[in-house]
Amino acid sequence: MTARSSKLLSSAVVALLGLGFAAAVSANEAAAPAATAGGKPAQVGVCAACHGENGVSASPLFPNLAGQQRSYLEVALKGYKSGARKNPVMAGQAAALSDADIKALAVWFSSQKSVLYTVSPEGEAKK
Length: 127
Ligand code: HEC
What we know:
The protein is mainly alpha-helical. It has a single domain, classed as Cytochrome c-like domain (Cytochrome Bc1 Complex, Chain D, domain 2, Orthogonal Bundle). The chain contains six helices and no strands. The chain has helices at 3-31, 44-51, 70-82, 88-94, 99-110, 121-126. Bound molecules: heme C (HEC).
C-alpha cells in the first residue's frame, strides 16, 4: 500500500467513525424522551401491532414476548439493532431504539404474564 492510499484509507475510516457516532447520538436523542422509568414505554404502542400490548401475540407469525427473560429480550433487540441477529422486520423496529429504550421494553415485556409453558412428560402421557 502506498503512503497516499493508506492516508486516504485512514481518512475514510475516520469519516465513517464520525458518521457512526453522529448516527448513534441522534438515534439516542430521538428515542430518549420516549423511555419512561418503569411503567409502560411509549414504543409499546408500535410493538403491539405484532406482539400485542402485553406481549401475547395474536398470530403465530409473531413470537410471544410476555414473560420471556429480560436479559434474553435485551440481547435479542440489541442483536437486531447491530445486525448480529438478522430479520428485516425487527431490524427496522430496533434501529431507532436507544439502550435505555431497549432496557425499558425488556422490563415491560418480561414482566407481563406469560402464556408460554413447558410440557411435562406426565402431561404428554396423559393425552
Ligand atoms: C411488523 C411486525 C412487528 C413489529 C411492529 C415488532 N415486531 Fe418484534 N418481531 C416480529 C417478528 C416477525 C419477529 C421474529 C423475527 C425473527 O425470526 O427473528 C419478532 C421478534 C422479536 C423479538 C425476539 C423474540 C424471540 O423470542 O426471540 C423481540 C424481543 C421483539 N420482536 C421485540 C419487539 C419490540 C420491543 C417491538 C417494538 C419496538 C417490536 N418487536 C415490534 C415482528 C414485529
